[in-house]
Amino acid sequence: MHACRQKRSGARRPYTQRMISLLLWPFRPPAAWILGLFILLGWLLLAAVDLFDDMVPMALIIGFELPLWYLLLGSLCLAAQMRLLHHARGLTREPMADETNLNPFGNGLAFRFFVLLAIPLGVLQWQAAAPSPAIIALLAIVFPLPWLSLMLEASAREAFRPATLWRLSKGFGIDWDGALVEKLLADFPDAYPESHLIANARFRLARLLHENGHRHDEAIAVLREIKAAHPRFAATDQFRSLVLSIRDR
Question: Across all residues in the chain, what is the average pLDDT?
Fold first, then answer.
């Protein structure tokens, strides 16, 4: 009974680790610097509005303020989208490509995020200074799902599709594209038979099967193939570490 309970706990551990890693993304650079810059400049912008409200025309303030808000909010949204998509594809331990490419003025997705974000902000503004608890609760329940859908699908049309929202509500996007990545890695040897990265692709497939799908027997079969066809790769520390991780599950 105790061994069975330990086994179930071990199977849940990779999913828990990915969730924790995802939730802690604002505290890791470069997202941490963007978040800090957003807080600092946001505070300065709000202070400037209060300070120069009577001296400078509001149109002039808005003309300078809106581009800066768009720059900050767009950069934050792009950073969040890149990290969430990276985790949803099952690439938890892989380095992120173009992690600092967060220019919202050169990315139409940032504008979609900005427009979607304007919906709850507009509702709160419509409710004036004291929005009702019911409105706040409704926004807190309804808004995150289309926001998450837009992050994963990069499509405004998909953001409000009932089928998409239902799928997201079941798993919060953690393994959204895991099946696609698995297929691409499995087909890598056939697509690139002369590539020197075949062993690496097979290893990533084994790790994906182990960590995301908990299909440990299939992962072991892939590792045995690697050991037979690529003995030098099988002697690396990362290969041995994955073997031990599967054995200790």
Answer: 75
Q: Do 243 and 153 fall into the same domain?
A: no
Domain count, the chain: 2
Report whether pLDDT(12) > 50. no
pLDDT at residue number 30: 66
Tell me which of 171, 189, 204 is where a domain ends.
Answer: 171
Domain encompassing residue 118: 2-171
Cβ neighbour number for residue 37 with a 10 Å cutoff: 14
